[in-house]
Design a protein that fits this description.
The structure is a homodimer. By secondary structure, the first copy, chain A, is an alpha/beta fold. The first copy, chain A, is built from 18 helices and 12 strands. Among the domains of chain A are: 197 residues, Rossmann fold; 85 residues, Winged helix-like DNA-binding domain superfamily/Winged helix DNA-binding domain (Arc Repressor Mutant, subunit A), CATH 1.10.10.10. Helix content of chain A is 43%, strand content 11%. Chains A, B: Belongs to the DprA/Smf family.
């Protein structure tokens, strides 16, 4: 099968008609039908389905839409689907196509082998826009609540923008809220370079490729198709229905190397995307939020159960995926031991920052005003005299202590801010 | 040794003078000194330290404050410490006392056996207020940043109030910010019952029991002593110094069955309390917050490294500790599978909530307006006719579908709110 789309060839290829017909014959996912097509090729499988001579599982999967219908009508509908797709600039691709996201889809094989229900791969995909490249290795799925909070919208936007800027494809579902923020922010990256050839974002629909759902995102979907891709495994004209969002979510999860849940209510459908990602062996990540926000409850559930890795931004995502060159927000992972000389203050500019604990202890043993003797420092710090004298030398070197004959005084560097509470 | 305090006995018990002297002879923690006192009793140990005839490790630990000082002066200082403590209503307790928090302190033995540095138990404790009871089993340590945000202050306050109301003792460090919010909110519980005998909160100081640090919390510390306890292992008059906060933190961690970090900056000293809790075998918990808040970075570090368990409130803490009778905020732990019929909407009152996925799929296959046939539902849903008819019966039972001869129509229950976007 060539890459030529129905639109550019001007004539419908038989294999593509077969795939279109098979897509319409069966509500996805159907592992049985996909396996059958893999074994026999689309045309032979299509003919067998039309003639009702396929294996029992295939006949059962296609019964509702094929039994009793004139095969000529089914073929005509398949051809009409390709024409409807071409009318919105979409082409139908299947596994033999170069553009087929085989690396992303291969995850379903593993999930099926582990007996995961509903893990059937897509049979074929309608694609509008740029080729599907970089899935899943260079892609990150960013999803979340439709009823997102300003906080979630901001975090999703910043994350998607940074991910796209770092070369990742941002995958999402074009819904209101987090999805929209993710797509829009990824598109910001190409705003200054409209001829940039790479795809920055992919939207996977739960309805026909010729539909805009939600309708208010029609312009956004057009933009996505210009600088990325819009994808659907449903025949043109298919309306979005509840179960289709769940089925679609498995593709969203499969397309990214990781699925990041930015905000999700307690019962959010986004959690099903996280579950699908986990079943497909993808990394699941979640952004925490205020515990006072209902929109973060789903994220906190994922994190509390250690189902998801906590991330605070794009850097954390890329670091977890092992592909960052930049400094992660959470890069300093070391939790100080209780006696490792951790600095209790939040102010990084405290004079004793970076000092050995013993030296800091001697510094703290000084009276706030006036001078003191080595003996008094020994008593106050509880450290041996030799240790105190060694510490004084270090403090003097750092300009933190000053000697005047046998007396010592502490030097408090001018920090331009009033002294803070200790501890 | 009796429980009689120096204050009430009117005469200083020799054993208590010995403990006071030993506390002053050595900056805690000193595992060597504690072991020596455990082996020989406080009086014998004190005499040996004064006579400089103790084991090398003990002599070394006490050298800075004992060597070359007249023993009579040291004894006089110890007696003065007990008098100074009594003046603020504090007593000195040691391991033989009934009030000694042996169960909490026993954790140090395990940590020392595992070679944890600085895990020395306290030798004795100055206590103001009520007896130390319920540590650690009925106690929860609530700590966090001094420079807390309004969010952190609110969460700490709600958590401490609910913990105290549920019968827990709230342990903290009396610092500004989270600590203050925790103590104050725990005290709210006894506001209506000032004669309530139980202790609601314990403050562990990094300075002498006769000092108020921070000074602005003097009244708060008095209130804590009235309805709980103020504790210090430092001799009266000891000033708070940097290293003492770190040393004190190990006691705060030891006193609670869990340590909850509500807010912490990246370099917060609170992280040392979390580290101490972990080393002592206590549960470590952290409250997430906005990723845009510097005050939640420390909590997110603990959670990202899976060093801490995520909690969103008192219920989560009590649930994790296995002692709740109430409903936890995160009680619904189940993450729905991608095809388990998860409901994508956040609105818990969607008409198909609680329906089997197949039934919901048929419900969604209805046209938005008007009626439809079973055949059309079969085609739209992609389900076998028998399944569709079974689903229709269920939907009719739930009042979600209505039959008019061969035609069916969907019934949308009046929800008082406009229909939501699907998915």
């Amino acid at each position: 099968m060539s890459i030529l789309s129905a639109e550019s060839s001007g004539e419908l290829e038989p294999e593509r008609v077969a795939l279109a017909g098979l897509l319409r014959a069966c509500e996805p996912p159907s592992a049985a039908l996909v396996r059958y097509v893999q074994g026999h090729g689309p045309e032979a499988a299509w003919q067998a389905v039309l003639a009702r001579r396929a294996p029992r599982a295939v006949l059962s999967a296609t019964a509702a839409r094929v039994d009793g219908v004139d095969p000529a009508v089914l073929v005509a509908r398949a051809e009409a689907d390709l024409v409807a797709a071409a009318r919105v600039g979409a082409r139908l691709i299947g596994p033999p196509d170069d553009q087929w996201p085989g690396a992303a889809v291969s995850a379903f094989a593993g999930a099926m082998a582990r007996g995961v229900r509903g893990a059937g791969p897509p049979l074929a995909l309608y694609v509008r826009g740029r080729p599907l490249t970089g899935l899943p290795d260079r892609a990150v799925t960013v999803v979340g609540s439709r009823a997102s909070s300003p906080y979630g919208t901001r975090v999703a936007g910043e994350m998607a923008y940074e991910l796209a800027r770092a070369g990742s494809v941002v995958v999402s579902g074009a819904a209101f809220g987090i999805d929209t923020a993710a797509h829009r922010s990824a598109l910001q990256v190409v705003r200054s370079a409209p001829d940039e050839p790479r795809s920055v974002t992919v939207a996977v629909l739960a309805c026909g490729i010729d539909r805009a759902y939600p309708e208010a995102n029609r312009d956004l979907l057009d933009l996505i198709a210009r600088h990325g891709s819009v994808v659907s495994e449903y025949p043109p004209g298919t309306v979005p229905a509840r179960h289709r969002f769940l089925v679609r979510n498995r593709l969203i999860a499969a397309f990214g190397a990781a699925t990041v849940v930015v905000e999700a209510g307690r019962r959010s459908g986004t959690l099903s995307t996280a579950a699908a990602a986990e079943q497909l062996g993808r990394m699941v990540m979640a952004v925490p939020g205020p515990v006072t926000s209902a929109m973060s409850v789903g994220c906190h559930l994922l994190l509390a159960d250690r189902f998801a890795q906590l991330v605070t931004g794009a850097d954390d995502v890329l670091t977890a995926l092992g592909r960052t060159g930049r400094t992660g927000r959470l890069e300093s992972r070391a939790v100080p031991g209780p006696h490792d000389g951790a600095v209790p203050g939040e102010d990084p500019r405290h004079p004793t920052d970076g000092l050995e604990p013993t030296n800091a202890r001697v510094y703290d043993a000084f009276p706030t005003r006036g001078s003191t003797s080595v003996h008094e420092l020994v008593v106050e710090s509880g450290l041996p005299a030799a240790t105190v004298m060694g510490a004084l030398a270090v403090l003097q070197l750092h300009g933190l202590a000053d000697q005047d004959g046998p007396q010592w005084r502490r030097v408090r560097p001018d920090r331009g801010t009033p002294p803070r509470q200790i501890g």
